[in-house]
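FW: tagging you since you asked about this chain on Friday. Here's the raw sequence from the shared folder, copied in full. Didn't touch anything.
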Amino acid sequence: MFKLFLLSLFVTTPIVADFKSDISPITPKIKKRMQGKSWTKGCPVSISELRYVKLTYKDFKYADRQGELIVHKSVSSDVVEIFKALYQKSYPIRKMKLVSSYKGSDWKSIEADNTSAYNCRNVGGTNRWSKHSYGKAIDINPIENPYVFSSGKISHKASYKYRSRAKQKNLKPDNQAIILKNSDIVKIFKKYGWKWGGNFRGEKDYQHFAK
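HL: got it, structure written out here
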């Protein structure tokens, strides 16, 4: 009986031995990567308020990769716990690089299906700072989880195949990356007080989580 109990624990307890993470202040080297791209003087938060986070994720071949994000220091621990839970669930992520790798271009980052966080920019079509400018927003698998205007328009052509927002029965990683209202990823972010853009009225921002 005791052996069966131990076997049950082994089967039901997620194994996270391969998950690794690190939170650190923005070093001069990282600041140089950001300067003039994702951050400039006049941004609403200072470099000292941001943190560089490295963490393990599953790519679209379900292989372990090391990703990087920049977030506000107040949410950095939450971000690690959230992505640890996503790793446990084997939620696939195409790639995870700093937006500065795309010269600060949100468009180019999305076209590359890149999961990203901090980027000092306005909300599209406004003069208001985006939540990304504060390091308190993350966009995940943006091609599979597009921003959809209330008219149904999508800016990125590769996303049109995902407009129906219905997972198929196959287990292809791009299909598993689709975020729906009842998805584990929405529940995990909600646990830490983050809101999902898929719940917006009118337009939908399926990739977007913010706190």
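FW: Residues 30 and 52 are 8 Å apart (CA to CA).
HL: agreed, and Helices lie at 2-12, 28-34, 76-88, 106-111, 173-176, 184-191.
FW: great, closing this out.
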